[in-house]
Specification:
alpha/beta, TIM Barrel, Vanillyl-alcohol Oxidase, Chain A, domain 3, eight-stranded parallel β-barrel, 30 strands, about 30% helix, FAD-bd_PCMH, FAD binding, FAD, Mitomycin radical oxidase, flavoprotein
Length: about 750
């Protein structure tokens, strides 16, 4: 008896005939409507009666919404692996993660040779396939910043650029019947996909044994390889033979293959619409229930919970992996897993967590919090991982990633109260809200996560007109350290609601926020490049212009020191928060007088054209070093010392953001973000060497001018920073809330606030 514990995949295998080009597409749509998971197509590029399988898959992916697509199997000799990798990643990105890579070493060599590809002997074809797998995986591995080099006998790449990364961890399913190919699958494949018609009795067991042995020798758990099977047969009212009979007979016989031979993927080879419907609507649900019942009775561990020797050796001390709840274990990523490099880092910080949990609901977040509380390692929480400070990862601890909670819900009742999942990004939010004429002021990058910004502050490009992001949050769902899922607002647990808006990372895991969006027309978005040779003068003039400008104008200033014979440069990102282009031009002309203008572009655009969607995969970069402060004004002395700081070379970038106007209309005690008199935020970003490179110069030159700090840009962990982030009486009040919701300080990664004494 063999059962590797994979969830069942049920799908169809179609002929890509081109006599009626839309017929295979209709069959795929029928399979999706019948509840099946997968549609696959033969790939015979030398066959003139067939559609090209790759073109067909892309068309089917665009014509369906849920079903996964794959070649069954793609003819590798006629598809160069580097190009195949980029095409596969592109299709996966375009379809939202619905592509699987089925690969074959090649068959029908007379026809392949006739198409211009040299014939390979069977052993050579296996070697070529292994080289291709290395190339495909290498192209997809964007966590490695070095050019890809694979010097194989049959396939070579020498310095190929990596990427794009697919939308999900694309499986490689390999069609094979012989031991040499099966050993390759055990070493490097994600699935074995033979056809039942090519197998003799006992071949499944023999093939499983070969794959298992090869997997173990490579340090993998055999369950890392899914066992799949192309099947065919006929549905009839009476039992006429194997897979020749009524649906209940199919359920019995396929169930035996699942529970005794470990097959978890059944792909029905048919072009008959009626067979597709019966397979999807009658066989599939009954087969799933049969297998689930048998597994519950036998206590079969899910495949996602199994680990090979290499993965087990990479586990971290202080984490009880075996106690991880089943629902979380299915999607958890550990060191040694292939997906690990894609989830371990943040935008600027390299991380090495002991496990990454990826819950899909508030209840699963609660399970994760309760489990993490029992581990003897730190806990980090991540929404999108764009935070400059890098606190949303760690080394050796638990990382709770809420990226799957990314919904953006706009009510259909005409109200402006929108619900934002904490794992979404602000570019995604802007994209959804723009067609409704709505926006939320939210930073300057579309890749920033909703949860991080909406619990910290939210200094955005419409801030002087519309305030901070947190000023528009009217409710939130949060999981606290005791595992409770709480919905809070001004009436329901008002103290916790107050604390979440400015210090949310200390209080729990926010899963969604309700925000009152703002009606917004098109906006004027301007980017200027200025000569910053007179650095102090530029700073003083720019700041004075911003303070004197109407609230519609919000401007961010980015400055870099001179290097390589080039003088210091400045870039202004400025928004005029309505569509009055005449008023915008007058204000922008005043800004342009801050320094010699080198380049200027301005455009009238929706807010979604400014804060654009950006779903980047983070690859880290070491330990970030950044310092932050808030300024009442940029007077002559402040401008002089900021210029000296930039000229010292201690930082790569100096940034000032306007935070006055509507930000300061809110009372200091209305939210846990208490800084309501300052007009500018200043931040500096150092080298990969860490904060030590900028601390001394910052403390000498910039810190004396600051009044408070914005903690999202701060990596200095010295205790005095806490009171600067949360000045009294805010800190005392936060400590009281902390004592109520997190008395053991589970959430301590983000400027830890000590709970008040009892």
């Amino acid at each position: 008896m063999t059962d590797y514990g994979h969830d069942l995949i049920l799908g169809t295998f179609h002929t890509p005939q081109n006599r009626d080009p839309q017929a295979p597409v209709r069959l795929a749509q029928l399979a999706e409507n019948a509840g099946l998971d997968l549609v696959t197509f033969q790939d015979h590029p030398y066959q003139p009666a067939f559609l090209d399988a790759w073109t067909l898959m892309t068309w089917v992916a665009a014509s369906t919404e849920r079903v996964q697509v794959a070649g069954n199997v793609l003819n590798l000799p006629l598809r160069p692996p580097a190009v195949l990798a980029r095409a596969g990643a592109s299709l996966d990105l375009l379809s939202g993660g619905r592509f699987a890579m089925g690969l074959g070493a090649g068959a029908f060599w007379d026809a392949i040779e006739a198409m211009g590809t040299p014939r390979l002997a069977p052993g050579e074809a296996v070697t070529a396939l292994e080289e291709a797998i290395d190339i495909i995986r290498g192209i997809w591995d964007t966590s490695d910043r070095t050019p890809l080099r694979v010097h194989g006998t049959h396939h070579q790449v020498d310095g190929a650029k990596r990427g794009p990364a697919p939308a999900h961890d694309v499986p490689l399913w390999i069609g094979a019947v012989k031991p040499r190919m099966q050993r390759l699958i055990g070493r490097k494949g994600d699935g074995w996909l033979p056809s039942l018609s090519y197998l003799q009795p006992g071949d499944l067991a023999k093939g499983n044994a070969v794959i298992d042995e090869a997997a173990l020798a490579a340090g993998r758990d055999p369950s890392a390889v899914r066992r799949m099977l192309n099947v065919n047969g006929k549905f009839s009212t009476s039992r006429l033979g194997y897979l020749q009979g009524p649906p209940e007979q199919w359920v019995e016989e396929l169930g035996a293959l699942a529970l005794e031979d470990g097959v978890s993927g059944f792909v029905l080879a048919t072009d008959d619409p009626r067979e597709i419907q019966v397979f999807g609507e009658e066989v599939a649900p009954a087969l799933r229930e049969l297998v689930a019942t048998a597994r519950r009775s036998a206590g079969t561990a899910p495949a996602a919970r199994r680990r090979g020797a290499a993965a087990l050796a990479a586990r971290r001390e202080g984490i009880d992996y075996d106690s991880l709840p089943a629902a979380l274990g299915e999607r958890a990523v550990e060191p040694g897993d292939r997906a690990y490099d894609a989830v371990r880092h943040t935008y600027m910080r390299s991380g090495a967590p002991g496990v990454v949990l990826r819950p899909r609901s508030a209840d699963e977040v609660a399970e994760a919090v309760v489990w993490a509380r029992e581990q003897d390692v730190p806990l980090a929480v991540r929404s999108a991982g764009h935070g400059i400070s890098g606190r949303s990862t760690n080394d050796g601890g638990v990382l709770l990633d809420v990226g799957a909670l990314d919904q953006v819900v706009v009510p259909d009742d005409g109200s402006r109260r929108v619900r934002l999942g904490a794992g979404g990004t602000w570019g995604q939010v802007a994209e959804v809200l723009s067609p409704h004429g709505l926006a939320i002021s939210s930073g300057d990058s579309g890749g920033v996560g909703v949860g991080g910004l909406a619990t910290t502050g939210g200094i955005g490009l419409m801030g002087r007109k519309h305030g901070l992001t947190i000023d528009h949050v009217v409710a939130a769902e949060v999981v606290t350290a005791d595992g409770r899922v709480r919905v809070v607002d001004a009436r329901n647990e008002p103290e916790l609601f107050w604390a979440l808006r400015g210090a949310g990372g200390n209080m729990g895991v926010v899963t969604w926020v309700d925000v009152e969006a703002t009606p917004v027309t098109d906006l004027v978005y301007s980017i200027m490049v200025l000569d910053a040779s007179d650095t102090a003068g530029l700073l003083e003039r720019w700041a004075a212009t911003v303070e004197a400008a109407p609230r519609e104008l919000t401007s961010f200033l980015h400055m870099s020191a001179g290097r390589g014979g080039r003088g210091p440069m400045a870039q202004l990102m400025t928004v005029w928060a309505d569509d009055d282009t005449d008023a915008a031009i007058r204000a922008l002309e005043s800004l342009a007088d801050s320094a010699p203008l080198l380049d200027h572009q301005a455009v009238l655009t929706p807010y979604s054209g400014i804060v654009r969607r950006a779903d980047a995969q983070h690859s880290g970069g070491g330990e970030p070093g950044s310092r932050s402060g808030l300024l009442e004004h940029v007077d002559q002395a402040t401008a002089r010392d900021l210029a000296r700081f930039l000229g010292s070379g201690a930082a790569q970038l100096l940034q000032l953001r306007a935070v006055g106007g509507a930000v300061n209309d809110v009372a200091a005690d209305a939210t846990a973000y208490a800084h309501r008199t300052q007009n500018f935020s200043v931040a500096a970003f150092g080298s990969r060497g860490g904060a030590a490179g900028i601390d001394g110069v910052w403390d000498d030159l910039v810190h004396p001018h600051t009044d408070g700090l914005y903690l999202s840009f701060e990596t200095d962990a010295r205790p005095e920073r806490l009171l600067e982030a949360f000045p009294e009486p805010t800190l005392t009040r936060l400590r009281q809330v902390k004592r109520q919701v997190d008395p053991t300080n589970l959430f301590s990664a983000n400027f830890p606030i000590p709970p008040a004494d009892a």
